[in-house]
Amino acid sequence: MFYCDDCAEKNGYPKSIIRSIGPCECCNKLADCNDMPCSNLPKPEEELDKHIELGVLMGGPPAKGKPVAEQFVGELKKHEIEKIAWQVFLSKTGLSFTRELTAEEKKQVINVDGYYFEQAEKLYEKRQRALLNKKYPAIDIPSDGKRGMAGGAYCLCFVYSKYKGNFVIKGYMCEVEEYLKKNYTHYFCNYSLWNCGRNRDIWHFWKEDIAIFDASIKERKKGKKTEIRPWSDPKMSEEEFNAKTFKFRRLPKRWIPEFDKL
User: Fold this and answer.
1) Could you report the per-residue pLDDT of 213-251, keeping only the tens digit for each?
2) SS3 state at 254
3) What is the reported pTM?
């Protein structure tokens, strides 16, 4: 079910770490909505007493002053960590399977060694901090289900768009790139790629003939700046090339009018 934060507070629904931009199913307002399975939503009012009783049996009463639905947030976090732990397991071992394992089978495999859960929890916290620091609407792109590295590395893509503002896309790089090219123009973005607790950043401009040359920390200390400019083209005059070259000490965190000239 898709519902905005306002409707979540109004109805006592839990807030999800998985979010999508679209019309809220409660108020029909276009917003950055929580994407929550209906099975995880609180029961109707007439079944609330039974629902509270079940919560007490499973893990004790909810904290005072908090909606009953908040007990499900921990379960969602646990589910996300289990998925990341499986990714860490595949990355570390290099194993592949002749069929897609069920969620329970994957859990049994990674439960053999607590190392995978430990690494998954660290990755989860880093990804959440990266999203919270930006505080942008997030769009989740589901995996296509292919085994191996077909989708590339997992990434958080921070998009700075002329028409849609700033937002984040979460998913595997190949699928995120495909989604961006299909649905947006006039943007530049940063792919923050994650693997085994490490990450690296790649800047990208929406036009194929324009590139972003990011200066390293060492180069910045020597006075070099980040450049947004065309790829070298012998057919382009020096005057035209310079007119389409923009240099920044730090890239802006929004689309600026100068980029329309590129």
Assistant:
1) 988 878 888 888 999 999 887 788 888 888 889 999 888
2) coil
3) 0.49
In Å, what is the CA distance from 16 to each residue of 69, 132, 196? 11, 13, 24
pLDDT category at 115 given cuts 50, 70, 90 is confident
Tokens of 58: 């499973």
Token pair 């940063």: residue: 190
The gap between the terminal CA atoms of the chain, to the nearest Å, is 41
In the chain, domain spans: 154-261
Angle in degrees, 0-180, between the axes of helices 115-134 and 71-93, rounded to the nearest 10: 120
Sequence-distant (≥ 6) Cβ neighbours of residue 117 within 8 angstroms: 81, 82, 85, 110, 111
The whole-number pLDDT of residue 212 equals 93
Q: Is 146 helix (H, G, I), strand (E, B) or coil?
A: coil
